[in-house]
Amino acid sequence: VDALGRPTRPGVRGEVTVPGGRNPLAPLLRYRTGDWARLETGACPCGDPMPRLMDLEGRQPVLFRAADGTPVTAVDLSRLLREFPILLHRFSQKRDLSCALDYRPAAGAAVDAAALAAALRRHLGGVPLELRADPALGDDGAKVAPYRSELELT
Q: Is 147 within 8 Å of 93 (Cβ atoms)?
């Protein structure tokens, strides 16, 4: 899609979007990845007829650190969060290693905040951690960036 979220034509650079979420009944929803590329649909010189992304420009990785300094990836956190009925989340870490998780519980579901905090602490150690349930997270129409960090990539 272009910067305004409109579909681009094949061969035109745009933000890569993918079907998102775990709801099999909503296949038309697209997650904006933050990666940019152009889609080529013609046959590859090798003969492969599948569409492919060209000139891929990936998004900046997000770095997290546990209390002991070991790296924690967004993939690690995503796997952990999948175990809870969370529809949407925003996880952030400050320079002092303190973390905050804002999350929107799935409709009609209760998130066990104590179990969620314990699972996060298994990955992050003793960093200060704040959990905030926000049933309106994302309702303002703005994209909720799932991961943010003030830590520098090294």
A: no
The CA distances from residue 71 to 16, 21, 41, 66, 154, in Å, are 27, 26, 38, 6, 11
Please list, in sequence order, all residues whose beta carbon lies within 8 angstroms of the beta carbon of residue 34, skipping any fewer than 6 positions away.
Answer: 15, 59
Distance between CA atoms of residues 64 and 153, nearest Å: 9
For residues 14 and 35, give the distance between their C-alpha atoms in angstroms, rounded to a whole number: 8
In tens, the pLDDT along 86-128 reads 999 999 999 999 999 999 999 999 999 999 999 999 999 999 9
- Mapped onto helix, strand or coil, the DSSP state of residue 105 is strand
Give tens-digit pLDDT for 31-68. 777 889 999 988 888 889 998 999 988 877 788 999 99
0.90 cut: is pTM over it?
no
How many CB atoms are closer than 10 A to CB 119? 16
